[in-house]
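User: Hey, quick favor. My workstation is busy. Could you predict this chain's structure for me?
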Amino acid sequence: MKDVIIIGGSAAGATAGIYCARSGLKTMLLTKDFGGQLLLTENIENYTGFKSIFGFDLAMKFKEHLTSYKEIEAEDGVEVTGIEKKGENFLVKTKNKEFESKAVIIATGKRPKKIQVKGAEKLEHKGIHYCAVCDGPLYKGKTVVVIGGGYSGIEEALFLSNIVEKVFILEYGKELGGEEITRKQLLEKKNIEVLTEVEVTEISGEKTVEGLKFKGKEGEKEIKVQAVFVNIGEIPNSDFIDLVEKTESNEIKINEKNETSVKGIFAAGDVSNIPVRQLIVAAAEGCKTAIYANQYIREK
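Assistant: No problem, here it is.
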């Protein structure tokens, strides 16, 4: 029996684990991978205390800090498949085991949303990618396209511009999103071309990606590219739980104390319906959730 089980090992989960351990709670953290989407991020420049740090390095610092507490048991490479009530407690299920706790904190974050256009399913993992850091080096000297000109799309394009010959950014809206400082860096790159108010209609190729069609203000056009990097949004990793109330987009609904619709189950970070999704906000949400989870357990 644990006091609290935390599901997820990135900023929200790791921070929640640290605060639970420091509160003297018997804590278990289960995660598919420490760092989550941090492992897909090349460089982070907006996390307080680090002017610049690689995503992987920050993820490992989270893990090192977390596992330094003897009160916490952490398991990596574990996928949670469900959560059930057991009296006043909870059963957290994985493929091979079950764990029991008095409270649960869900901090599983989000995953990239897949593109749904003609040719996309056929060419999945054959030139269509969702992580420039992971797969960008495969296309040294090539021409690639980034779909989505928001925060992550700009970051991906900047990373790719140092490897490939040419990067196209296709943005559905009238202008790019992201931060002003990164937009400025983007516009200074001579091998990046930005196209706004366009809609992708097809990704073509036989064995691998060879081209991409899109509709814009001047009608339909086609460009020759060797890879497509998709950044069109994210999906909450909340499919494994049906107990709690969710939004239409599958985000877990929480109140100001990070409580879900089920007493004893809390949620933190991007998997929840918080309005701001930044790494530092997720960490703060993890801290807040652990404090309220501790209060709930002590009152029991």
